[in-house]
């Protein structure tokens, strides 16, 4: 029983740490457009995880184009992403610079 409690506590702290691990600038953009509502660090949610996205190694320019005009055919089995037409180049750059640091 006690072990289970410890495990629950650990999972709670781990998920908290995951949510907190976004750098402030990234969190700002993610909060503004609710990216985290569909993209998690390690696991599939509505969309692919940030780690999966990082593997594509998109340039900021390419990523901006894909966020404004998603190509669901790049992600078979996922629903199409809602286009975010208003995201700025600076905001896209924050996200793509950060993605390029994820392994
Ligand atoms: C409503 C859910 C939702 C939100 C909000 C969302 N995404 Fe997505 N995203 C998806 C899904 C689903 C896919 C996979 C299908 C697709 O690309 O259309 C995806 C794909 C992507 C891709 C890959 C595009 C490609 O063609 O390879 C990138 C990059 C991305 N999202 C970044 C972002 C960023 C950055 C934000 C916030 C600014 C964001 N997403 C917000 C659901 C979402």
Could you explain the architecture of this structure?
- The mean pLDDT is 90.
- The chain has helices spanning 2-20, 24-33, 50-55, 60-68, 89-99.
- It has a single domain (23-99), classed as Cytochrome Bc1 Complex, Chain D, domain 2 (Orthogonal Bundle).
- The radius of gyration is 15 Å and the shape is globular.
- The chain is mainly alpha-helical and 103 residues long.
- The termini are far apart.
- Heme C binds next to helix 2 and helix 4.
List keywords for this structure.
single chain, 103 residues, mainly alpha, Cytochrome Bc1 Complex, Chain D, domain 2, binds heme C
- The CATH level-2 architecture is identified as Orthogonal Bundle
Percent of residues in beta strands: under 5%
CATH topology: Cytochrome Bc1 Complex, Chain D, domain 2
Can you tell me the residue ranges where pLDDT is under 50 for at least 5 consecutive residues? none
CATH superfamily: Cytochrome c-like domain
Let me know the largest β-sheet.
none
Distance between the termini: 36 Å
Share of helix, binned:
40-55%
**Structurally, how many domains make up the residues?**
1
Which compounds are bound in this model? heme C
Task: Tell how many strands the DSSP assignment holds.
Answer: 0
Overall pLDDT: 90
CATH class: Mainly Alpha
Helical segment tally? Answer: 5
In short:
The protein has about 100 residues and is an all-alpha fold. The protein contains 5 helices and no strands.
